[in-house]
Write a structure and sequence with these properties.
Helices cover about 30% and strands about 35% of the residues. By secondary structure, the protein is an alpha+beta fold. It has one domain: Aminopeptidase. α1 crosses α3.
Length: about 170
């Protein structure tokens, strides 16, 4: 599949995107269940109002969509945690669109948002066994930290923290 990246836009969700967000989020959780702290079963149980709140950013995290025409082909989220760390979460690209530069565009969008919001550091958690994702983040300037935790949705999966720091 060839893809014109200029035809792919990255934008924040709005309330009217709730069905698009629901569809792509559930697809991501089904495709890669051990890559996210949220389980498919939990997300599938959200009602329409909960999806509307997530899409409208009334709740955290905030989500961005990679759109090709009217089709969502990628997803990423960001949230500031309790320790004021800027977190990159929920990064996913549709399998048919991987390797086309969409993931890089999504990560760049989160780094830009972090800087615009006064953060010089972005963190994420990834399983080092998820080689494709870990390599993507390394190419984007993230480095592994000696911090590990169990994945909330799958406690048997250990994830390692990575960080990116803006260059002054």
């Amino acid at each position: 599949m060839t893809m014109d990246l200029s035809a792919v836009t990255v934008r924040a969700t709005a309330e009217e995107d709730w069905e698009v967000l629901k569809t792509i989020r559930l697809a991501s959780l089904q495709d890669s269940p051990t890559a996210f702290g949220l389980s498919h079963a939990t997300a599938a149980a959200y009602n329409e109002q909960q999806w509307r709140e997530r899409a409208s950013h009334e709740t955290r995290p905030e989500f961005l969509l990679a759109m090709q025409q009217e089709q969502a082909v990628g997803l990423i989220g960001d949230a500031v945690g309790p320790t004021q760390e800027y977190n990159l979460i929920a990064m996913w690209v549709h399998p048919m669109c991987r390797g086309k530069g969409i993931a890089e565009r999504l990560v760049d969008a989160i780094k830009t948002r972090a800087i615009e919001r006064g953060h010089r550091r972005v963190v994420l958690s990834v399983s080092p066994d998820n080689v494709r994702a870990a390599n993507l983040y390394r190419r984007q300037g993230f480095v592994f930290l000696p911090e590990w935790e169990a994945l909330a949705s799958h406690p048997g999966v250990k994830v390692q923290k990575m960080e990116w720091r803006a260059v002054d």
